[in-house]
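From the methods appendix. Each design record in this collection lists the tokenized structure first, followed by the designed amino acid sequence. Records were kept in a plain field format so they could be parsed without special tools. The example shown here is representative of the layout used throughout.

RECORD:
FOLD TOKENS (206 positions):
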């Protein structure tokens, strides 16, 4: 695939639809820098948003990957089918990641609890106070690291669905980390309607 040709085609179709890079980025829940990279041929859109991008630009996936409008009667839809298969594979991978998040979360709690229990059961006067603190810290540090990776996995795997407009997107790590939450449901601001709500984690954009 000619990335430069595809990039120029994306830019052309974006302008035809009277969209700025910023507006297109907001619609796809990506940065305007990402759109700029597509249009300069430095990278390609992620397969998970390719169908949505094509719908916005009013083109087919075949057009996008060809870098031009393909006018062929009864054109072969293999490209569309392959892309759909790629999206399904991403959904399977995201499910595995979310299971891994649960494992990391449980292990992180155990890593913290065990040293705390040990420090609590050591008789008074047996060890110095700083040694007791050191035992607790030996569990606290790996626990914090584990939680960091667990939240990172939750951020990138799947999407959050806005309760108001139904928009599904991937928020920033900072937004996920700072948001109030109940399990995987987090209180976030939707980039599409700008409203805050309790948003559930979903795997598919469909």
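DESIGN:
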């Amino acid at each position: 695939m000619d990335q430069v040709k595809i990039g120029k085609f994306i830019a052309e179709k974006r302008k035809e639809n009277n969209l700025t890079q910023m507006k297109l980025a907001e619609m796809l829940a990506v940065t305007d820098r990402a759109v700029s990279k597509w249009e300069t041929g430095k990278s390609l859109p992620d397969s998970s948003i390719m169908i949505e991008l094509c719908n916005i630009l009013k083109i087919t996936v075949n057009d996008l990957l060809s870098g031009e409008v393909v006018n062929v009667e009864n054109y072969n839809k293999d490209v569309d089918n392959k892309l759909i298969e790629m999206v399904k594979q991403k959904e399977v991978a995201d499910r595995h990641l979310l299971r891994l998040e649960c494992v990391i979360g449980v292990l992180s709690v155990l890593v913290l609890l065990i040293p705390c229990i040990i420090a609590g059961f050591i008789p008074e006067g047996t060890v110095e106070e700083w040694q007791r603190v050191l035992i607790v810290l030996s569990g606290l540090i790996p626990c914090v690291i584990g939680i960091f990776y667990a939240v990172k996995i939750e951020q990138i795997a799947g999407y959050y669905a806005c309760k108001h407009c139904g928009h599904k997107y991937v928020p920033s790590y900072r937004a996920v980390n700072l948001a109030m939450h109940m399990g995987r449901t987090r209180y976030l601001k939707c980039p599409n309607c700008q409203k805050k709500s309790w948003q559930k984690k979903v795997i598919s954009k469909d």
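APPENDIX NOTE: Residues 155 and 173 are 6 Å apart (CA to CA).
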